Structure formats: C-alpha cells, structure tokens
Here is the input.
Amino acid sequence: MIKRKTYISIRAVQPVVKALEILGYDVGGILQVAGISPSLLKDADGKIPHAAMMRLWDCARRVTGDEHLGIHLAEVAPSYSFEVHSYALLASPTLRDAYRRACRYQRLIHETTNLIFEEGPKEGVLQHALPGGLPVPRHPAEFLATLWVRFGRLVTGQDWVPRLICFAHPAPDKTSDHSRVFRSHLRFSSGRTAMHIPNEILDKHNPQVDENLVNLLDRYAEGILKKLPQTASTAERLRVWLHKVLSDGVPSTTEAAQALHMSTRTLHRMLKNEGTSFRELLDQLRKERAVALLADQRCSVAEVGFLLGFAELSSFSRAFKRWTGKSPAVFRAQTLGASPRHNDSDDLE
Here is the structure.
C-alpha cells in the first residue's frame, strides 16, 4: 500500500502545549526534543507532520513521567485553546448536534483522521481512528476520550456518564484516574477508541445554547474548510462516504464512484494503486460497526445483522466469523463477560 506523509494542524498542538504549561512542565524542552519549532505555534494555519505530533506525545510522557498524561492534560486544557471547535460545540442546541459538529470540523485539525459519530436506534457511538482505521496510541486516545466527556458534560450542563468507553491499548496497571473521570464501564484491548452514549443523553438540551453564535461559527468553519486542499486518498474519501451511507443499506461500486465524481473503472484502479479495494473497505467498516453494535446488549444479533444490510442472520454470522474467527453471539458473550445463550436463535452460525 502506498503511504504518504499526513499532517496535523497547529490547532491540535495548541491544547496539548497549553495544558503542559498549566501543569508547570518545560514545554520548550519538550518541543525541542520532539523536533518542533516553537515559532510554528504562532501560525494558526500552520501544520506539522503527524509523526511529529506522535513524537511530542512520546517526549512529553518521558519528560513528565506521568502515567496518565492524556487524561491529566485533557482535564486542564483551556477551552479557548481549541478555538472554533470548542465554541461551536458549547453553543450547539444538543449534545447530539455538538458531536455531529465535531465530526464535520475534524479536517480543521487533521487532514485524514476519522472522527465518526454513528447514530443508532438506542445510542450513538463516537469513534476516532488514524488513517486506514489504525487505532490511536494510548495517551492521545485517553486525551480524546476525556475531552469527549468533559465537553459533553459542559454542553448538557449535567454530570452524565457514558454507557461504555473503549480503548485499543491494554489496560494500564492502575485505572483509578479512568474510573474517576469516566465513571463508566471501560473496555481495553478493544481495537478502537470509542464512546457509547445513550440517546436520552445525546438529546439533552443545552441550557447555554446560542444559535446565532453557532450559525456564525459554522459559516466561519465552513469557510476555512473550503480553503483546505483536498489531500485525502481515494480510500480515505471512500471510507468517509461509506460511513455516511452504510446505515441506509449496502451501496454499490457504481454509487460510490458517482459520489466521488469518477467512473467505476477509475475507482477500482485508484483503490488498487493504494493497496485496497471497495470490498475490503466495506468489510472493514461493517466489521467495525458490528463490533460497536454488539457491545450494546439491548440490540439483538439479528438486529445488528439487519442494520449492517444483511438479508439473513446466517449471512451475517458467516461474515462476522470470517472477520473475527468467532460467531456474533460468542463474540458478544466474551465482550460482555457472559456465557453464550446456546438455545437462542442469535447463535445461528
């Protein structure tokens, strides 16, 4: 697969730097070790390679010696350091609107990372992944999850608790800070960074809603987005489009090509050049969505298959076993720490 250098906006660096300063660390020394010039932080439209941001996290972790650095930085990062993101989220009518807006403006921070908000019949799932669906490393992942909860509570004006928080990395030796911040069920080594929020929380009204302000910020953010170069690969653009339409059924390659403004033949050729295919990307997204839906035991296995566009439960079971090596029922039981119900039709292979 052809790899290319990806970049992250200075807008994503500023909150981390400000939080380090507030906690009293030598930011200049950390930036120097990470190979990031302090002068870059003065350019709001500046960018650094994504690899440099990962070095910044690694250097900050070594210098501070903080085993829970991501959580602690997210707790103290000032709202203003997130610029248009924080102001738009905090002025949104509901928490659902706030998370939708966060996804829409993700490209203001990173040109290719995926922030996806999957809205289901009973809950929404906010997920973040690096290009190609790769999981986020521990400390930036915990930074993001803490921000999701922190800003979510500010939007609603209530101290709500997520139903589930998932991390790709293994559980650390101590999780007392995780329990203190999230106060919800935690799942480590899950292969993803995600937060499950019940619909009754997502639809809570923001007591501080300011629709005039949010409309103004929307126009400002959309103006910036239009000026950004279209640097995403065909696979990344297709992945974003598939996320949007998958709930309405499995799309065809012809529909996908039309959505990306190219011929079907060109779509196949460009995906092949990038080391992937339409079927591989579709399977990857259906697997990710299946894993998220199966984490909600209120949704039956049959319902999960239906939501993923499978006409029959047996077809979904075969596909899921091909993806994970386990049947949906066994996977759910192991994930939830329960025993499979062998007399249930959901166990159909």
Notes: Strands lie at 7-9, 47-49, 114-119, 123-129, 164-166, 185-187, 193-198. The first strand starts at residue 7 and ends at 9.
